[in-house]
Automatic annotation (TrEMBL):
This is Ribosomal RNA-processing protein 8. Keywords: Chromatin regulator, Methyltransferase, Nucleus, Repressor, rRNA processing, S-adenosyl-L-methionine, Transcription, Transcription regulation, Transferase. Pfam families: Methyltransf_8 (PF05148). Probable methyltransferase required to silence rDNA. It is found in: Nucleus, Nucleolus. Its main location: nucleus.
Length: 274
């Protein structure tokens, strides 16, 4: 009887031990499965920053659509007034992002960005107060120690004031340098330049960079552009045509009053399909 009881205890103990082992094994198996699941969820994103699931063809189509939007907005900006452009972009600020994303992609391919030339100029005059008309992402302000007032149609940066650049919130004769880097877009160019003249101190400097081809019209040309700006009360101090794509100007504000009815019309800058 005693022997039978001992055998039963051994069997029960064996069963309990087996149950413990089974539970432990199951628990370990569950951990392994959980680890596998975690590994799948935490799988790194595809290289190159592409969205998962997009094929090469889909990526190409996406780029073409974005390029089409950029060209459409570019054409719109060249054919509207400053007031119209400001109202349109304020109503749909995402258009500003689309435009500047396309612009940055273009600028990355340029052998020289004229803004870098202006940044170097401002750095050489650390006490100068600067107004950056059509500043984009305000790279000039971020690159220099100077006081820089940055203006554009939309503010995506705390240092940028959103406005029509023909009407900026600055006092008369309050800045030393006015910068227009590829910013003379639209049909109200004279208004933009006169606003720069208003805020410039006597003998203040106006820096302009533009695409050369925009001035290749029978009624303008680079000499014609210089004459028009001179009529607005400036003198040309320096001109650089050495770059294949761009021309830069340095004008100085004079005591002469601007002439009436000055008009400046330049060609729209057309970008090739990306």
């Amino acid at each position: 009887m005693t022997k039978s009881k001992n055998q039963k205890k051994q069997r029960d103990s064996s069963v309990r031990g087996s149950t413990k082992i089974s539970k432990k094994a199951a628990k370990g198996s569950a951990k392994k499965n959980a680890a596998k699941t975690t590994q799948v969820v935490a799988k790194p994103a595809a290289k190159g920053g592409k969205k998962a699931g997009l094929s090469a063809m889909q990526e190409q189509m996406k780029r073409r659509l974005e390029g089409g939007k950029f060209r459409m907005l570019n054409e719109q900006l060249y054919t509207t007034t400053g007031v119209e452009a400001f109202e349109e972009f304020q109503a749909e600020p995402e258009l500003f992002d689309t435009y500047h994303e396309g612009f940055r992609e273009m600028a990355e391919k340029w052998p020289l960005n004229p803004l870098d030339t202006f940044i170097n100029y401002v750095k050489a005059h650390p006490k100068a107060v600067v107004a950056d008309f059509g500043c984009g992402d305000a790279r000039l302000a971020a690159s220099v120690p100077n006081t820089v007032h940055s203006f554009d149609l939309v503010s995506r940066n705390p240092s940028v004031t959103a406005c029509n650049i023909a009407n900026v919130p600055l006092e008369n004769e309050s800045v030393d340098v006015a910068v227009y880097c590829l910013a003379l877009m639209g049909t109200t160019l004279v208004e933009y330049l006169l606003e720069g003249r208003r805020v410039l101190k006597p003998n203040g400097v106006m820096k302009i960079a533009e695409v050369k081809s925009r001035m290749e019209t029978p009624s303008l040309g680079i000499p014609g552009f210089v004459k028009k700006v001179t009529d607005l009360g400036f003198d040309l101090k320096h001109k650089d045509e050495s770059n294949k794509m761009f021309v830069t100007f340095e004008f100085v504000k004079t005591k002469r009053s601007p002439k009436a009815n000055v008009q400046i019309e330049m060609k729209a800058c057309e970008y090739k399909r990306r």
